[in-house]
Amino acid sequence: GAGVSQSPRYKVAKRGQDVALRCDPISGHVSLFWYQQALGQGPEFLTYFQNEAQLDKSGLPSDRFFAERPEGSVSTLKIQRTQQEDSAVYLCASSSIEGGTQYFGPGTRLTVL
Amino acid sequence: AQSVTQLGSHVSVSEGALVLLRCNYSSSVPPYLFWYVQYPNQGLQLLLKYTSAATLVKGINGFEAEFKKSETSFHLTKPSAHMSDAAEYFCAVSDRQGGYNKLIFGAGTRLAVHP
Question: In a 3-state reduction of DSSP, which class is residue B84?
Answer without folding.
Answer: helix
